[in-house]
Amino acid sequence: MASVLDCAQSSSGPKVDAARYLTQLKRVCFSFLTHIRVATRQIPYAGLTTWNNNERMGLTMKRISTVLALSTAIATVAGGAAYAQSAGDWTLGIGLGYLNPKSDNGTVGGAAATIDSDVRPIFTAEYFVWDNIGIELLAATQFKHEISLDGNAAATTKHLPPTLSINYHFDTGSKWSPYAGIGLNYTAFSDEKLIGSNTSIELDDSWGVAVQAGLDYQISEKGAVRLNVRWFDIDTDVTIGGNAAGTAEIDPILVGMSYVHKF
């Protein structure tokens, strides 16, 4: 860290060191993934043998805040040309998202439900209404999930997770630009099917809060690589054969890696 600080404070100005930036980016990525994994595990913590949703959300937000603080610190000392956003700017992003539902997904039909993960293309469009403050729309191709009951594959479903957020991008005066945001998610389920049965199954669409933190690294005058993590509050009422069967609590984490272009 001292060598990075020395570089940032050098009288000759910041020097671009590709190897150093790559090392820092790897460290940030590792920190994101480590904190996400720990935050979503359902393990005893501080004397708790089970977590409720508020406890899980609280720890997840704590982990995200830690990662955001780390990202901001790295960005501040890394130096390089500034990657700033001004009022009236647009950005478009395209990448991949790994959607990982929480480990305990509620009770459906009297059985413990679990929902598997999926990876799909993700897209973002953001308009900056003020300097550093943008309104962002997240879209994706349909995520597909298998639903297991008491450990046995029972059903499949697809969903779309459009999310509208307001983001604040921190101006660090460097190639690194951390940001955080909060918004509203709408999840639309489709193609619900019971495995090995013609009985109908339906998952209600869901509205919920979404929060995120991320880090952009400028690679050209208009382009940046983005790593971010989002948490969605997604709960859906399940109906099987026309009868209420319970509520599936999905509450997933979405880890995304994208290319973002500024217009």
Main β-sheet, spatial strand arrangement: 1-4-5-8-9-11-12-15
Succession of helices and strands: HHHEEEEEEEEEEEEEEE
What is the CATH level 1 assignment? Answer: Mainly Beta
What average pLDDT do the residues reach? 80
**Strand residues, percent:** over 45%
Query: Could you say which structural class the secondary elements and strand pairing correspond to?
Result: alpha+beta
- What ranges have pLDDT less than 50 throughout 5 or more consecutive residues? 1-16, 35-54, 74-79
Shape: elongated
CATH topology: Porin
The CATH architecture assignment turns out to be Beta Barrel
Helix residue percentage: 10-25%
Structure summary, number of beta strands: 15
Domains (count): 1
Description:
With 263 residues, the protein is an alpha+beta fold. It has one domain: Porin. Helices cover 22% and strands 49% of the residues. It contains three helices and 15 strands.
At a glance:
Helices cover 22% and strands 49% of the residues. It has helices at 2-9, 18-40, 53-78; strands at 90-100, 107-108, 111-115, 118-130, 133-140, 143-149, 152-160, 163-169, 176-194, 201-203, 206-218, 223-232, 235-240, 243-249, 253-262. Strands 1-4-5-8-9-11-12-15 form an 8-stranded antiparallel β-barrel. A 3-stranded antiparallel sheet has the order 10-13-14, with no helix packed on it.
